[in-house]
Design the sequence.
């Protein structure tokens, strides 16, 4: 019934990403004509406006698209793999694992050794968390087990982040504990963008080809195996890809929560509950959600800048509750 | 519990800035304890005088153990400690952060009165004023623009000690054009718009990392034509009030004269 409707939704989501991307370029403390500034850029003139546009707003908007897409995509892939609606990088502690390792690299001067250490550390932390959760729960575990494992990993990572930042030499570090658990896009530069891009792209490409296997897996592990899917390899491929992409994202902007949970859920009915189609659509949806949230934090007047993760959590956490209530009804 | 006439003999301080006044003015042997920060050379101007004195971390227990007859504290630091000590009947005096050189003078006098060292305070003020007279000026209409840009985008306006010193050193404070009167946050976009000629760098801890500090290293600041210069002032010269603020003023004035000469050539 839905096969014909997919292109429409796809078009709508793509259109939203493009429109919101341009809105994101125009929203800021100071308003100026985007058109005129782009013309200045083409004429290779440098002004304050071209600098604001290219060096501040462009990286911020691009990173919002990339991180949003990563979170949506990885959420969809993890939900497909674990066949569990509550699987997502935030809930399972993957983001906090990445945040912990990033904090250690950043706040203790290790990133002076090489800038590339940062995305690598984020990836390692994410991978460690994912493997731990999997070791704790295994395949086809109940929703409760998965949530509990996630709660445990999140709690350990959060405690270690607080400890690390408390011990960090920078006097500003303590105030920034919240940043890592809430995420912030306001300070990203083009340098950050280039650093996160390679691992992110590798992660995305590794996930793109998983669609068919995830479709098969939705029929059960044995059926999938009989259809020629190597489930163990698929699992590691998704774990590694998620770690690569989410690790790079968290290392750049901190742990922005709930996008990977909410987006695949909202969009699943629109693609006829098909895991393969959900991947790309969730990536677009994630980009839309993060762009929207980041535009909102700039529009809401406040004394100190709002964290973008606050908004995604305000939307996402009630949704999480709703999912728990719903899943309780479905349980025998 | 108030010792109205006799000068206090066991004075405790739980704030870096009251530490400084105390280390400057107190009679030998009357300081019971100062904060651990006062022994840090980066933030404490009189750290050498603090070295032999027992330190505290602003905890009420530590202070009570010294049985002080006067406790000095800041308005905003260690609030729970000062509340508790007040409830326990200790004589607690609070000092706000001075917002001008004039207020530094007033605070020195007040401190002198509290600890029975008014004469010392007057001597310090006279020396400070004599130095000020030689070096202080006011910004001319075409004076260059300067702005403090601390980690996290924090900046100060006219109604602050740093802002006052900037004016006395002959700079226009560009943060005022962003509407900052006392203390405020200026984001990078606004910084590019108001474009001060120079930024003040007053590092708290060199070579450490935080999001807040990272903001000052944003690549856009290397590409823009303004801010063009960075003026470095040691933190210990002006994070607290005292005669050392004249040294900060001299640093700023020298930097202005160098930059003006460079601009003309």
Sequence:
């Amino acid at each position: 019934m839905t096969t014909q409707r997919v292109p429409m939704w796809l078009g709508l989501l793509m259109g939203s990403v493009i429109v919101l991307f341009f809105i994101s370029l125009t929203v800021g403390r100071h308003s100026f004509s985007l058109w005129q500034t782009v013309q200045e850029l083409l004429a290779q003139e440098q002004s304050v406006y071209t600098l604001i546009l290219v060096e501040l707003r462009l990286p911020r908007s691009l990173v919002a698209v990339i991180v949003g897409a990563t979170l949506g995509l990885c959420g969809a892939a993890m939900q497909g793999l674990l066949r569990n609606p509550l699987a997502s990088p935030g809930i399972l502690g993957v983001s906090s694992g990445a945040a912990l390792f990033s904090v250690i690299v950043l706040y203790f001067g290790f990133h002076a050794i090489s800038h590339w250490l940062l995305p690598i550390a984020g990836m390692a932390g994410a991978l460690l968390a994912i493997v731990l959760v999997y070791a704790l729960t295994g395949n086809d575990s109940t929703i409760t087990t998965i949530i509990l494992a996630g709660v445990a990993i999140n709690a350990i990572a959060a405690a270690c982040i607080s400890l690390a930042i408390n011990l960090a030499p920078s006097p500003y570090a303590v105030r920034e504990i919240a940043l890592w658990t809430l995420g912030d896009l306001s300070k990203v530069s083009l340098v950050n963008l280039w650093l996160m891009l390679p691992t992110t792209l590798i992660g995305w490409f590794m996930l793109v080809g998983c669609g068919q296997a995830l479709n098969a897996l939705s029929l059960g592990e044995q059926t999938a195996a009989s259809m020629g899917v190597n489930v163990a390899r698929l699992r590691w491929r998704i774990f590694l890809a998620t770690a690569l992409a989410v690790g790079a994202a968290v290392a750049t902007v901190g742990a922005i929560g709930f996008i990977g949970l909410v987006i695949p859920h909202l969009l699943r009915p629109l693609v006829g509950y098909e895991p393969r189609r959900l991947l790309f659509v969730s990536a677009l949806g994630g980009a839309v959600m993060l762009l929207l949230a980041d535009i909102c934090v700039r529009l809401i007047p406040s004394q100190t800048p709002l964290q973008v993760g606050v908004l995604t959590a305000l939307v996402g956490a009630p949704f999480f509750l709703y999912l728990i209530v719903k899943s309780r009804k479905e349980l025998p | 519990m108030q010792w109205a006439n006799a000068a206090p003999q066991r004075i405790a301080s739980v704030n870096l800035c009251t530490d400084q006044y105390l280390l400057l003015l107190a009679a030998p042997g009357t300081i019971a304890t100062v904060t651990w920060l006062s022994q840090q050379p980066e933030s404490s101007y009189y750290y050498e005088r603090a070295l032999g004195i027992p330190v505290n971390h602003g905890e009420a227990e530590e202070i009570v153990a010294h049985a002080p007859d006067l406790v000095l504290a800041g308005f905003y630091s260690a609030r729970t400690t000062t509340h508790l000590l007040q409830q326990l009947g200790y004589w607690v005096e609070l000092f706000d952060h001075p917002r001008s050189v004039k207020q530094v003078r007033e605070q020195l006098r007040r401190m002198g009165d509290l600890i029975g060292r008014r004469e010392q305070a007057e001597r310090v003020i006279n020396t400070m004023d004599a130095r000020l007279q030689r070096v202080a000026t006011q910004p001319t209409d075409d004076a260059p623009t300067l702005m403090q840009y601390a980690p996290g985008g924090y900046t100060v306006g006219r109604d602050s000690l740093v802002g006052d010193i900037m004016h006395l050193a002959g700079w226009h404070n560009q943060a005022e054009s962003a509407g900052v009167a006392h203390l405020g946050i200026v984001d990078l976009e606004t910084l590019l718009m108001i474009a001060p000629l120079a930024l003040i760098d007053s590092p708290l801890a060199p070579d450490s990392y935080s999001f807040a500090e990272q903001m000052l290293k944003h690549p856009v600041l290397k590409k823009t034509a303004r801010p063009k210069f960075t003026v470095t002032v040691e933190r210990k010269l002006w994070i607290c009030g005292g005669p050392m603020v004249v040294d900060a003023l001299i640093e700023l004035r020298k930097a202005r004269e160098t930059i003006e000469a460079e601009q003309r050539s």
